[in-house]
Specification:
Two copies of one chain form a homodimer.
Chain A (H helix, E strand, L loop, with lengths): L2 E2 L2 H21 L5 E7 L3 H17 L2 E7 L5 H13 L5 E4 L9 H7 L11 H8 L8 H12 L8 E5 L6 H10 L3 E5 L6 H5 L4 E4 L17 E4 L3 E3 L2 E3 L4 H4 L5 E2 L6 H20 L3
Parallel strand pairs in A: 1-11, 2-3, 2-4, 5-6, 5-7, 7-8, 8-11
Antiparallel strand pairs in A: 9-10
Helix pairs in contact in A: 1-10, 6-7, 6-10
Chain lengths: 282, 282
């Protein structure tokens, strides 16, 4: 039976450390300030916003949510971003996904001040990441690396297979894993025969968002399985991995919930604090 | 026996088309202007500079080489870059590699005006590429895609295995291949058992710079083999692939010389012209 990679536990440990840093910053007159823009009424988004705010409050980060109407125009969004860019007390700006179809997300993201780009989605921060300069790190990828490190799992020389090529998870994780000297394969919706690749993975990361995608036949004995999927079934969430049948076969596995989810939220707060420290020369 | 992917022939075809574009631009008073900075006396660099200049002249691009002493300081290099950034007639700036050890290449590259960054090595242009915005494209990756397209080889759904994770070839090619819907694996010096991966490649791209690295046992029957390696043996050059023994087994293969090399130089000129056109609103 696999050892559980307990993301919730690590998130708690890291949040406690982060709170101490924030306490120190506050003593020096620095209040980390995080602005989140949410457009429309996506139910999952509201849940994420709530869990972010809860953790931010616990750590001592000021989080302000800007709730925009689902009919918000591109111009209105850009104008809000410009305002937040110019407000010196704001350290981090994030656009909660998904956004309605009238929004040109790439244009909006590229207008965020790179110094306030907590999600590492502006072109210059994406480029820096690929060049080994961790000006800011995408939260999920950062959380995955922290989790592997916590359990003393070395990625060097390992075959890391990533399912998903999003800007938020798959691509930045590929960058960080290459930097860790892993051999990296990126699979996606156009990949023929997923199992052919997943069976070769020493470390398998599924960020497909497809319930039960990964069955026990698709993983190698003793592999390490990281489940980034968050799929809702009623009030419950479950991952991309058929946990019950995969867990007995592998050496390590993340649960869902309690795995990468809480680590992602905590990592995001770390980025806010990182940007606040840099801004204030600390 | 494999069909030859004739990079030299395609480079000639594309150079002829490019010359027509440049002739048109000149009629409108636009003279594409390319500045190359070379530091020190690397023999290969001098050969590349010569072949660039020859093609630039043929196409009608003005190329000016700045030859700096091998003892050039970082400050001198940065000052030259600043000058070239400010000179409005300069459309493209490139630093010829390798540079001497006293030079901080990343710092120098990041100071190049992204509007003049022909090699796509500034952070914002690297980020743009990963986001699907081809503001400028790295020459080798651009050449490889052009070659596959010319021979009507579709990368979608194929397993593309890239050996090498450099900023110049491996990483940008991974970005472009993911965009083409290929499943992408990136191998490098820390990969254990290269053959295990190369044997699975539908399209194998070797950018290792290691003579004879790829033997016939390492490739799948009917694979497509792209050899980016340029290894010097006296006055001759040869690739990473044991061409004689690999060619009979695969469906397509690039020769060295006459494959990716000439396409890279031609693609670089395309980027200079692209930047000159954009600068002049054309």
């Amino acid at each position: 039976m696999a050892q559980l990679l307990d993301g919730q536990k690590l998130a708690n440990i890291r949040a406690t450390k982060l709170k101490k840093q924030v306490d120190e910053l506050k003593k020096q007159g620095v209040q980390p300030f995080f602005s989140v823009i949410n457009i429309g009424d996506d139910i999952s988004s509201k849940i994420y916003l709530k869990s972010k705010k809860k953790l931010a409050t616990k750590i001592g980060i000021k989080q302000k949510n800007f709730q925009l109407d689902s009919a918000t125009s591109q111009a209105e969004l850009l104008s809000l971003i410009a305002r937040l860019n110019s407000e010196s007390q704001v350290n981090g700006i994030m656009i909660q996904l998904p956004v309605p179809s009238q929004i040109n997300l790439n244009e909006a993201l590229s207008l965020i001040d790179p110094e306030k780009d907590v999600d590492c989605l502006t072109p210059s921060n994406v480029g820096r990441l690929w060049q080994g300069n961790h000006f800011v790190e995408p939260a999920t990828a950062h959380g995955i690396l922290a989790l592997l490190k916590h359990y003393q799992i070395d990625s060097s020389g390992k075959h890391v297979v990533i399912i998903g090529r999003s800007s938020i998870v798959g691509k930045p994780l590929a960058a960080l894993m290459l930097e860790q000297d892993a051999t990296v394969s990126v699979l996606h919706t156009k990949t023929n025969n997923l199992a052919k690749y997943t069976k070769e993975a020493d470390i398998l990361v599924s960020a497909a968002g497809q319930l039960g995608l990964i069955t026990e036949k698709m993983v190698k004995d003793n592999a390490i399985v990281i489940d980034v999927g968050i799929n809702r079934i009623g009030n419950q969430i479950a991952g991309d991995v058929d946990f019950q049948n995969v867990a007995p076969k592998v050496s390590y596995i993340t649960p869902v919930p309690g795995g990468i989810g809480p680590l992602t939220v905590e990592s995001l707060m770390e980025q806010v604090v990182k940007l606040a420290r840099r801004k204030n020369g600390r």
